[in-house]
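Q&A log
Question type: sequence-to-structure
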Amino acid sequence: MTVEAVEPLPPGGTTVRLRPGEPVTVADGVTVELVALGPAQAGCDDCPNHATVTLSTPESAGQADITIGGLMEPSVLEAARRLEVGSWVVRVDAFGDDHLDVTVVDLDD
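Response status: OK
Response body:
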């Protein structure tokens, strides 16, 4: 799979910590959920992290398997850590042992 480079998100948005199976409402009718979180490999800074994230808006919904690793080019990493549904974007900011930190942005704002 080839991932195209994208521009960084504009500043702002809502930052939330997601835990598996606990959906978070970030705006009227907009929900983000961490469906699954892959285990981190101890002692491996270059190994990829995995997560499955859903984003639901009043108009539509989407799900993505997000895999990012330490050796990705910055522009490719920016594309790989996103899920876009309509004007809404979820960007993975950090992986934790039992959570995922994300920022949710409405590009129409």
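Response note: The mean pLDDT is 84.
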